[in-house]
Design a protein that fits this description.
two-stranded antiparallel ribbon; mainly alpha; 7 helices; about 170 residues
Length: about 170
Amino acid sequence: MTISMYQASVPLFARGLASLKTILTKGAAHAAARKIDESVFLSARLYPDMLPFARQIHIASDFARGTVARLSGSEPPKWEDDEKTFAELIARVDRTIEAVKAYSAAQIDGSEDRPVTRPVRGEPKTFSGINYLLQYSMPNFYFHATTAYAILRSNGVELGKADFIGALD
């Protein structure tokens, strides 16, 4: 059995985004229960030179929707990164799930060799579709999703591995 580019992208991004939504929902509930201003969490960082929580969500969502768009041969529309609350970040993740799931297997499959050029450290880098997905996009998506999880967990939000992994099929 082989795995297609669609199977390796859309369902994995959708599942990871659903987990991010769970993490965001638990973060919002934690802040509300303890009467902590949400901005404390949204601006929290693991280390001073790392990006804040809200930015981690922006980047993870951008990688998910941008990757499937580029694999389909199109360029994703630009979204503003202006969310200031958990509710707004949850809405962004919902919108991202919809955007990712809007692509069909027919649009993504066969993109293994499609050239995708992206800036990497300020320089254009051209990937094959499969290398873009597996060596660049997926690692970046999971890095930012993991960092978002770790920021909330380090700030006392009760999260576990199952929240990150999500529901198993």
